[in-house]
Design a protein that fits this description.
The chain is an alpha+beta fold. The chain has 18 helices and 19 strands. The strands form six sheets. The chain has a five-stranded mixed beta barrel with strand order 5-6-7-11-8. Strands 1, 2, 3 and 4 form a four-stranded mixed beta sheet that branches. Strands 12-13-14 form a three-stranded mixed beta sheet, sandwiched between helices. α2 packs antiparallel against α5, α14 crosses α15 and α17 packs antiparallel against α18. The protein is elongated and about 130 Å long.
């Protein structure tokens, strides 16, 4: 009964090691390439030899040496104990007498080593040691799987892939992605890398730009006592993706415009406010290809697919040129600018642009996006000025409102220009309430005043409601603008402005209105 039990334990221990090799066969890492599987098995076999040697020294003898032969395909192994041939045995576990050896092999001499075995490993190792061997193999397989997945993801850095929404968290969205070897990988899209108009709940499948891969980091103590963080080679990884990166737009153009991939069209620069506006400068390496036309596509089909992917981001595709005056004029589109009115200093990288009054707001753009993107695209700091055609009509004491760009910011300048307040005197004549109204834009959302059809009621425009806190905020901003502009004039000029305002007002209203504004 005891013999049967011992035999069962022996078979069980051997099966544990064999099952460890079996896990290699079941691992997805090795299913695609037999050669890779064989190479990894040899690595694990070397690992096993080291572990068995270590456990023999722990359980059998601290100075024992062994030759270990492993067949990974069947999970078989043979272990031979190396014993030193001596005249008299002092340590039986690692020594053997010459007389005993001569009965087996008379070619060996004293000082040589004799291989005793193959031994029953189960008789030399405890159950705990066998378990350690199995766990070591399992850990090795897991580490190799992570490494294979990491290397495959590393190849995807700088590429665009499609991921499916897996989980939506407060500060990030997790996407699921299957690699070419059918490994499931989680992609992390931080909130800072999302376009504002992105809605993962409505669009569960999105294109993503693989920005970088972060490995698990551990704190390591240096020789000098300082502690630094280093990537853990076998640690977990986090794949960071983006939809706001400029290179994401580049890759979308590359996928939609074959000429870019072929090198016939070159993207010379990209400037982008994600989800709102982007400018792309293109150049052709062939005289037969129109770079802008090819990038936009027939009836705009190519650019439309990119715009749709970016949630209707407005994309301007412009011709690139080495001439800074022409390039700056093109970069400020949709404003219509004569390149002759652009003065660019290549040393200081500053440019001065003279614009017609009605083109200034287009050059600046909503939120100042247009001029900021033009500056990023061209590499020039751009200042715009009003070019008055008839100088006799220009008031020498007045100031262009764009002179206050630095104080007010491009967004507020754009709102003032859009409301017709293009000079300082017009701002003062308008008063605080009109300035506030210009900053807020229309208070009513325009809708159809009537709907055709019998029985239909007239649709009234909806009022945009502001909280008391918002009203106080914009009132304070309007007062600050009025005060800043007013400080540019002396008392005589202010009186003249007030008189002009009174002359322009209807009878009975001029005095009250002027006093209110002052």
């Amino acid at each position: 009964m005891a013999k049967k039990q011992a035999k069962g334990e022996t078979q069980d221990r051997k099966a544990q090691i064999a099952s460890a090799f079996g896990e290699i066969e079941q691992s997805k890492v090795f299913l695609d390439k037999r050669t890779e599987s064989a190479a990894v098995k040899m690595d694990i076999a070397d690992l096993l030899k080291d572990i068995i040697q270590k456990q023999l020294r722990k359980d059998y003898d601290p100075e024992v040496e062994a030759n270990i032969f492993i067949n990974p395909e069947r999970g078989d192994f043979e272990v031979y104990i190396l014993k030193k041939i001596v005249d008299e045995i002092d340590i039986p576990s690692i020594e053997i007498s010459i007389d005993e050896v001569r009965q087996i092999d008379d070619s060996l001499e004293v000082g040589d080593y004799y291989e005793e075995g193959p031994i029953n490993l189960e008789e030399y190792l405890t159950r705990k040691s066998i378990q350690i061997i199995k766990q070591s193999v399992q850990k090795k397989v897991r580490d190799l799987e992570r490494q294979v997945v990491y290397e495959e993801c590393l190849e995807k850095v700088g590429e665009v892939i499609a991921g499916e929404v897996y989980q939506i968290r407060p500060h990030e969205v997790i996407f699921s992605y299957n690699t070419s070897k059918d490994h499931r990988v989680e992609l992390v899209l931080p909130k800072s890398e999302m376009i504002k108009k992105d809605n993962p709940r409505r669009t569960p499948r999105m294109k993503l730009y693989v920005k970088r891969i972060e490995r698990e980091r551990v704190k390591v103590k240096q020789d000098d006592g300082s502690i630094v963080e280093k990537e853990k080679p076998d640690g977990g990884m986090k794949v960071i993706v983006s939809r706001t990166d400029d290179r994401f737009l580049y890759k979308l153009f590359e996928s939609e415009v074959p000429e870019i991939l072929d090198g016939l069209i070159v993207i010379k620069g990209i400037a982008r406010v994600p989800g709102e506006r982007a400018k792309v400068a293109v150049e052709s390496t062939s005289s037969r290809i129109d770079p802008v036309g090819a990038s936009v596509g027939y009836r705009g089909k190519r650019i439309q697919s990119i715009v749709k992917e970016l949630n209707n981001e407005n994309i301007d595709v412009i011709y690139y040129t080495d001439e800074p005056q022409i390039f700056i004029a093109r970069a400020l589109q949709p404003a219509k600018i004569d390149p002759m009115t652009v003065h660019a200093d290549m040393k200081t990288r500053m440019a001065r642009v003279m614009l017609k009054p009605d083109q200034i707001k287009y050059a600046i753009g909503k939120n100042g996006n247009n001029i900021h993107l033009a500056e990023r695209l061209t590499g020039y700091e751009i200042d715009v000025y009003r070019d008055v055609i008839d100088k006799t009509l220009e008031d020498p004491n007045d100031i262009d409102i764009i002179e206050f760009r630095e104080e007010f910011g491009d967004d507020m300048i754009y709102q003032l220009l859009d409301s017709g307040l293009d000079t300082a005197k017009k701002v003062l004549q308008a008063g605080i309430e009109e300035i506030e109204q210009a900053l807020l834009g229309p208070t009513k959302i325009d809708e159809m005043s009537s709907v055709f059809g019998k029985g239909r009621k007239t649709v009234k425009p909806r009022e945009r409601r502001l909280t008391d806190e918002e009203k106080r905020y914009w009132k304070k901003i309007a007062e600050n603008i009025y005060r800043t502009v007013k400080d540019q004039f002396n008392e005589t000029d202010l009186q003249e402005i007030n008189d002009e305002d009174n002359d322009a007002a209807p009878e009975g209203e001029g005095a009250d209105e002027g006093s209110e504004k002052q």
